[in-house]
């Protein structure tokens, strides 16, 4: 299968806020798609990106790294990054990471 068959991203813009929905499997094969999604979100002026992970069905260590890189990309562009729709397993993994995330702390996630 191709990466585009395993992971889909879609963004919705409202003024300077973007909702970025990530659906499918996030791993070594699909991680590069997130970089493209970030660049697409930043084409127009953006203050805030909300990453909706409700549709994320699988995320390995490479996927976690890709999420961190995505958040770092937004931070470098001075864009606030929030996560939403996090599964209990992913939330547990995020709270156990030794380095602080570049997004809203998981304890404050909804």
Automatic annotation (TrEMBL):
Gene3D superfamilies the UniProt entry points to: STAS domain
Domain (STAS): residue spans on this chain: 18-94
Coiled coil residues, start to end: none
InterPro entries in the record: STAS_dom, STAS_dom_sf
Pfam families: STAS (PF01740)
Entry-linked CDD domains: STAS_anti-anti-sigma_factors
Database matches in SUPFAM superfamilies: SpoIIaa-like
Protein name per UniProt: STAS domain-containing protein
Organism field: Streptomyces sp. 900105245
